[in-house]
Write a structure and sequence with these properties.
disordered N terminus, alpha+beta, 33% strand, 517 residues
């Protein structure tokens, strides 16, 4: 018996045929990147075992732990990474002269990064070894001959998708109707200094907590604990933005991921005005760059300037950093009550201090003398629209953007994560511990901690894998927060993940907390 084919099926098949005819490579590439077994994460090789445990923390918050894959027990020795293949070949020849057999591995750029190169660089590596001890022996032999190498666990290599992992992923899912119970708090309640996430959570009586934004780690980089990017808490701008970098915005009954920028100006009572270069940081030191003084973001780099105007608020610390420059102390009304030729003054409880070097110091001498008034005006833009700074508004810095409007959108180069090929290879292509945040279409908030740097527990994620994970979890918008050794999640007073620093939990600059009313 002849069957009649329904017209809708004929139309559907015709559409698919035309789509494949005109867009074959794009359709296939997209499918290869994100197609996987139903209800399983698209990470590593297919058919890996996956275990999930789900726990209801409160009526509106769920904690899910996902364990996927298995250790591969493969190691290699890398003796160099180069932007050009010719330099890598020269090293191969030198190694061969000393009876070492190494090869060149081109490091492919990930599909969704905003970087034009197809190849990021070239890694010079040994063959694979099943035991770490075998790779360490090769490293020792290299050292004897004057070569420096490092042992790599192959699972950390984000350039290869043919890995078994493993991965351990911790997910907090929070209903949008209780988003007002989410808030950001500084370490020790002030800009200066660091504190572990578990201690922040304990003193805040938080049910759950996760680490937040990038921050200054060392004294030679600025004030330790100072947020290295935008920070807004309860409507108050505490750290200037690295312009055009992404962040997580919390406001009344909602959260969103957006690209942010800041502009701060001071205006004297004599009519003259000037831009403020930074807030609550050491003059001349801008971590991650990208502010008014240094327009281009450069992640993990400290930019220097000999001419800056910095605004200090009481939440910074009790006194401003000691240094050479001009400072004026302002009372609550913005009136100048002191002008001095050195830095290091007490910040009034309800006032502020302006500190200047170079041209900014000259501006203060002229336009901020005792008795004059200097008023501050702040503008924050979120996705190119003015962000209203209400007591319900808080922002944590991050980057890069991973997903925007349901599309993969890894803004790595524009946000300063590819200032060198080697840095991007280590930071973005390779797998590292990650802290991620995302928003589902219904407003549900996702806070995710991915363990890494542990061959037996979890290898971590590349930028692209982070984006793929967040989309698989249902996020329409997502971004990367501070990760690496900072990645920490605390639930009911207990650290649920495995912080990767050898010393244990790392003190950080701020944290995102969930409390119960």
């Amino acid at each position: 018996m002849r069957r009649n084919i329904p017209i809708y099926r004929i139309l559907t098949l015709s559409f698919l045929f035309i789509l494949l005819l005109f867009y074959p490579s794009g359709v296939q590439k997209e499918a290869k990147q994100i197609s996987f077994q139903k209800n399983k994460l698209p990470l590593g090789m297919e058919n890996l075992n996956e275990k999930r445990s789900i726990q209801k923390i409160s009526a509106d918050m769920t904690y899910t732990k996902i364990e996927r894959g298995r250790p591969s027990n493969q190691y290699t020795v890398e003796v160099g990474f180069f932007e050009d293949q010719a330099t890598a070949r020269k090293l191969i020849k030198k190694l061969a002269i000393n009876n070492f057999s190494f090869s060149i591995l081109p490091i492919q750029n990930d599909h969704f990064n905003d970087i034009r190169e197809d190849i990021i660089g070239y890694s010079v590596r040994s063959r694979n070894y099943k035991k770490e001890s075998e790779a360490k022996l090769v490293k020792t032999q290299l050292s004897v001959k004057g070569f420096s190498g490092k042992v790599l666990y192959n699972g950390f290599d984000g350039s290869s998708t043919k890995t078994t992992g493993p991965w351990t992923i911790h997910i907090l899912e929070i209903n949008r109707k209780v988003s007002d119970n989410l808030f950001i708090t500084l370490a020790n309640g002030e800009v200066s200094g660091k504190e572990t996430v578990s201690r922040i959570a304990a003193r805040s009586n938080a049910i759950a907590a996760i680490n937040g934004g990038y921050f200054v780690m060392k004294e030679n980089e600025g004030t330790t604990g100072d947020l290295a990017g935008i920070s807004i808490i309860n409507g108050e701008l505490l750290s200037e933005g690295i312009n055009h970098r992404s962040g997580l915005v919390l406001s009344k009954r909602k959260a969103n991921v957006s690209v942010l920028s800041t502009q701060i100006q001071v205006k004297s009572s004599d009519g003259f005005q000037r831009d403020v270069n930074g807030i609550n940081r050491v003059t001349g030191l801008s971590r991650n760059c990208g502010s008014l003084t240094n327009l281009k973001p450069l992640h993990d780099i400290t930019c220097h300037s000999d001419s800056e105007l910095i605004l200090y608020k009481p939440i910074f610390d009790t006194v401003t950093p000691v240094g050479i420059g001009v400072e004026v102390v302002l009372n609550e009304q913005g009136e100048v009550i002191l002008q001095d030729e050195f830095q290091g003054h007490i910040i009034p409880r309800n006032g502020s201090v302006l500190s200047g070097t170079g041209e900014a110091a000259a501006w203060l001498r002229t336009h901020a003398t005792v008795g004059m008034k200097v008023m501050t005006k702040t503008h924050v833009q979120s996705d190119k629209r003015e962000l209203s700074l209400t007591p319900k508004t808080s922002v944590v810095n991050g980057g890069p953007l991973l997903v925007k409007n349901n599309q993969f959108f890894i803004d790595a180069e524009r946000e300063g994560f590819k200032w060198s090929h080697d840095f991007f290879y280590r930071f973005g292509i390779n797998r590292n511990p990650r802290t991620l945040a995302g928003i589902k279409p219904d407003g549900t908030i996702l806070l995710v901690a991915v363990d890494g740097r542990n061959p037996q527990i979890s290898v971590g994620l590349s930028f692209q894998e982070s984006a793929v994970l967040m989309k698989a979890l249902g996020a329409k918008d997502a971004l990367n927060l501070d990760g690496g050794g900072s990645t920490t999640m605390v639930i009911n007073g207990k650290i649920v993940n495995h912080p990767s620093d050898s010393a244990g939990e790392r003190p950080v600059g701020d944290a995102i907390l969930f409390t119960q009313n």
